[in-house]
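Reviewer 2 asked us to include a model.

Predict the structure of this chain.
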Amino acid sequence: MHWNLLHKQFIAYLRIEKGLAENTCLAYQQDLQKLTDYCLTRQLAVESVTYEHLKELVSIFFDLGLSARSQARIISGIKQFFGFLLAEQVITNDPSELLEQPKLGRKLPEVLDIEEIDALISAVDVSKAEGHRNRAILETLYSCGIRVSELVNLKLSDLFFEEGFIRVIGKGNKERLVPVSEKVEKELSFYLEHQRKHMNILKGDENIVFLNRRGQRLTRVMIFTIIRQLAQAIGLKKSISPHTFRHSFATHLLEGGANLRAIQEMLGHESITTTEIYTHMDQRFLRDAILTYHPRNHQ
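Predicted model (structure tokens):
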């Protein structure tokens, strides 16, 4: 069977049956193209791919200088692809079964302290047309811990201020309710009433919360740009992105006493192990917590 057709069938399976997000499916597609290019240059049919071929492909990734994390992601996609082919009886043996992942060091995310977040929000020029929108964006990212993709797709019909929640559609179209603080409600309400209400909105985006000057939904790139410009304005040396606010949200919750399970629910993580990356507070904080709360220290 033709490689491109198999790719399309696999991506359709990920999208429809597994319910993966479009960006995730696109990443799988791009990674699998590397496997396809390798096999086509060697005139390999999918049924002819062996474990030795895949080991050679992985060694090529290493020689090219791909990071262990990038290699692990590509290998994971390859293993899922061949698992799909085996289940669909396109192949009778899975050549990727013994393929090993490179060992990964846990990369700690960049985190902002509360003073840095306050400085970024204070740096927003509210005299500009988009000022209150940008303040609302930063408050929502930090106070709700949502992903940038969730932010740009947030709808007016997802705002339940009377109940104290917003509805977020996360990865795989999974829905969750996230509590909103009075600060978030205040900033969002001001933006909606004093800016968005007076805009000419493009057809199809009438229900989208955050819009650009042309009345269209904001792009992820635009959110990155807003944040990096503010970081430059206050002279922040850390390399930050919209996701930094999500990391900071989770870390500050944990330091404030929230348990991992609660944070997992707030972030929309399927696995608790994904949330455990936020237990990276400095040794002083851990030492203080142990000395304060461990019963052996209260004799």
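The longest strand covers residues 165-169. The CA atoms of residues 85 and 262 lie 38 Å apart. We have added this to the supplementary material.
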